[in-house]
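TEACHING EXERCISE
Course module: macromolecular assemblies
Task: Read the component lines below, then compare them to the predicted structure of the full complex.
Student: A.B.
Group: 4
Components provided:
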Amino acid sequence: MAEKMTLIMFSGDMDKALAAFNLAIGAASIGMEVSMFFTFWGLNVIKKNEGAIKSKGIMRKMLNFMNRGGAKRLGLSRFHMFGMGKWMMGKLMKETRSPSPQELMTIAHQAGVKFIACTNSMATMGIGKDAFIPEVDTYGGVATYLADAKDGRINLFI
Amino acid sequence: MAEKMTLIMFSGDMDKALAAFNLAIGAASIGMEVSMFFTFWGLNVIKKNEGAIKSKGIMRKMLNFMNRGGAKRLGLSRFHMFGMGKWMMGKLMKETRSPSPQELMTIAHQAGVKFIACTNSMATMGIGKDAFIPEVDTYGGVATYLADAKDGRINLFI
Amino acid sequence: MAEKMTLIMFSGDMDKALAAFNLAIGAASIGMEVSMFFTFWGLNVIKKNEGAIKSKGIMRKMLNFMNRGGAKRLGLSRFHMFGMGKWMMGKLMKETRSPSPQELMTIAHQAGVKFIACTNSMATMGIGKDAFIPEVDTYGGVATYLADAKDGRINLFI
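Instructor-supplied answer key:
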């Protein structure tokens, strides 16, 4: 049986998403079975890039507007500076031909990395399955995560 | 022997505390032995809600005022917006009947999750045992954590 | 064979560096084999304290100026308050005779903790090996990390 790695993607920061996808792809490429569990702000990473998410109530509308998400829209955990840090990082990554979070996400998915969206966070934030990219394989809660992580050789919270 | 999970609760953010308690409760409910090690800002999570902590020296007094803590007072890691983000999140959680950090903490404790307060951080910040809720089971340092984590199937830093 | 611990040091925050070095030293002192993998902002922790890093292009120059790093210059993840939080924490730590991040780094290295700098982050940020302290043992990417972490009893992302 393949060795397992699990990553809880709690953060919605671009830099942490880059780190997570690089770890996932590296592990998949040496034959590990990888699952990424997206929860809280991490759900932003796997949201569709197009437009706003429909949700009920003014507060959910606000929360979901602020968290429009999509891998294209993620900010940095540091030096965000109203988008300038992100723009700089984007330019540097292009120059050094580093793949973007979106490209890494596609590569990870093609390498067999499993994407799981946290249903508890979805319920609290009032977002449905239609908000997410089709690469999401599973919708599940803590029990789904624990079932994977219990046999994980490497389990990280990012 | 029961399988173990350990969580280092370094952060004092409400959202991360929610994630941690949900993981702890989930693991306890499938029979795992869970210990949560509260350190640095994470100490705020297990502080009593009532009033200021007595401490010596103006700087410690300031630091402890800023970190009054108690599970009721935790802020979000993102979108805190001078408390508005927290208020919104609180309302959404009430609407969806999601338990608060305080309620989750009680549930976790009743489910047998062990709460450990980091004595090193307590010494640096100048706070004594009387600052904490009675649910704290153990006071210990890195060695206490490592003894648990070495046999942990899942060890996370939150 | 000694039991292993691996720490990914993603963050460049002083408080998280303190936590990481304390964990590393604790584990080394009970005979564990510890490796710390410094990536992204974490690279700041192992940069030399002296002056600016030479790099090409205005944006890399700016990025590297903002990330001058060196264990002396790290800020707090919370309450940084334009350096005041850091100053207060520094004073409190001196009063309680807690070692500084720099001192802990030296102790960790002497205790046999392995320091690995992430070559991917270095390439994106345009920094060479000359930017780092001599205590760095290895330069490597994700594969280097995974080789250690696969056999790790405790693997944390900080």
